[in-house]
Write a structure and sequence with these properties.
Elements lengths: L15 H6 L7 E2 L2 E2 L1 E2 L10 H13 L10 H21 L7 E4 L2 H16 L5 E5 L8 H10 L2 E5 L9 H7 L4 E7 L11 H10 L3 E5 L11 H4 L3 E5 L10 E5 L1 H6 L10 E4 L4 E3 L13 H15 L3 H20 L4 E3 L12 E3 L4 H10 L2 E2 L1 E3 L4 H7 L4 E3 L8 H18 L1
Parallel strand pairs: 3-15, 5-6, 5-7, 7-8, 8-9
Antiparallel strand pairs: 1-2, 4-10, 9-10, 11-12, 13-14, 16-17
The chain binds pyridoxal-5'-phosphate.
Length: about 425
């Protein structure tokens, strides 16, 4: 019996209580209260299948992968390489070797900036991002700007948090060589019109990198249908372990890119005079990988894809709509990010209390939310605020979590209002 044998128990229907039963941590009391975990955008909790997969690897099937001829190395290698196919099916990549394992979204974007950006982009070429990017989709391009003289352009957002597509199109010219844009804003929940963005970018000959960190847990994702040239995400936001992630790239682009990191596993042959690199995907995977983590990410993908997709989408849409309506009733509360296309995130400010104080009081009530700038300081600058409170939902969130949040905000009002 492996850790994932029990998976189909949630398949076919969407029963949130059964989904919750898969997450041991949700039964924990925090500060003596029921846990209302509303911080999945920062990192999702882990289902038992993932926890058991990691324990199983280290207990029964652990050794270094690829090179070993012994039993344990073979077992670990079989489990490890199987995950590439799981990711390929999850995002509908055309080929399995288009899936590169990374340490996460940040790692994937830096890989593209360094391996693709440093060779395919030259001084004066433009990279177009948006005002709602996470810092990890801003800073790597600024580093490239400082090193290579590329020009960074930023498409603004409207005040509701949606992307200003007129401005985006005006900034998209034949000088634009790369568009790097998020599928979903982590600070606002905005869903960007990613298919249109890819189509428009390709029309001027630009390539597109899509940051799927917040997209993949909430939107059925097909990289070919979307038209992405590169797509990155983090395992830990998709119910898998930290330190895991994926870079998808079209094979033609990955083939033409030089490796980023050199070392073991990414070579075909080495002499002191010359190194011949391994084919895809190994060219981009130097060194011993996160073996148990990648296998655990595969268990998370198995768990996630066994959920009834329509049921999951309907459930999350219901919790978002319910939460948004309940928050709108709280006196003095202003939602930050009200784009028509939104998922999973309900950022807000209160006109009588600082986000960090709100977060601390909510914590006393068992409610876990993130407060701060959410690694998206330009979004805060747009709204002229320092921080927001950001409840965010996942597959296991319930209306009860929202009620606990609203009750906690009542306590905030008693103290500060
Ligand atoms: N991009 C977005 C939209 C995010 O929300 C995050 C994390 O919050 C990242 C990138 C960075 O992900 P990681 O820290 O897992 O590399």
């Amino acid at each position: 019996m492996t850790a994932t044998d029990s998976l189909p128990r949630t398949a076919g229907v969407y029963d949130v209580e059964r989904v919750r039963a898969d997450f041991p941590i949700l039964a924990e009391k925090v500060r003596g209260k029921r846990l209302a975990f509303l911080d999945s955008a920062a990192s999702a909790q882990k289902p038992r299948a993932v926890i058991e997969s990691i324990a199983h690897t280290y207990t029964r099937e652990y050794a270094n992968v690829h090179r070993g001829v012994h039993y344990l190395s073979e077992r670990a290698t079989v489990a490890y390489v199987a995950v590439r196919g799981k990711v390929q099916r999850l995002i509908n990549a055309a080929r399995e070797d288009e899936i590169i394992f990374t340490g996460g979204t940040t790692d994937g974007i830096n890989l593209v900036a360094q391996a693709y950006g440093r060779t395919a982009l030259k001084s004066g070429d433009e990279v177009l991002i948006t005002e709602m990017e996470h810092h990890s989709n801003i800073v790597p391009w600024q580093m490239l700007r400082d090193e290579k003289g590329i020009v960074l352009r930023v498409a603004p957002i409207h005040d509701d948090g949606s992307l200003d597509m007129d401005a985006f199109q005006a900034l998209l010219t034949e000088k634009t060589r790369l568009v790097a844009v998020t599928q979903v804003s982590n600070a606002l929940g905005t869903v960007t019109p990613i298919r249109d963005i890819c189509r428009l970018a390709h029309a001027v000959g630009a390539k597109v990198l899509v940051d799927g960190a917040q997209g993949i847990p909430h939107i059925a994702t097909d990289v070919q249908d979307m038209g992405a040239d590169f797509y990155v995400f983090s395992g830990h936001k998709l119910y898998g372990p930290t330190g895991t992630g994926v870079l998808y790239g079209r094979a033609e682009l990955l083939d033409a890119m030089p490796p980023w990191r050199g070392g073991g596993d990414m070579i075909r042959s080495v002499t002191f005079e010359h190194t011949e690199y391994a084919p895809l995907p190994h060219k981009f995977e130097a060194g011993t990988p996160n073996i148990a983590g990648v296998i655990g990410m595969g268990a998370g993908i198995d768990w996630f894809t066994a959920l009834d997709r329509d049921g999951l989408d309907a459930h999350e849409a219901d919790i978002l709509a319910y939460g948004t309506a309940r928050l709108a009733e709280v006196p003095g509360l202003r939602l930050v990010g009200t784009a028509p296309e939104k998922v999973a995130v309900m950022s807000f400010v209160l006109d009588y209390a600082h986000p960090h104080d709100i977060g601390t009081i909510l914590d006393q009530e068992g409610v876990a939310v993130r407060t701060g700038h959410h690694c998206a300081q330009p979004v805060m600058q747009h709204y002229d605020i320092a921080a927001t409170v950001r409840p965010s939902i996942g597959a296991y969130s319930t209306r009860e979590d929202i009620e606990q949040l609203v009750a906690g905000l009542g306590k905030v009002r008693e103290m500060f209002g």
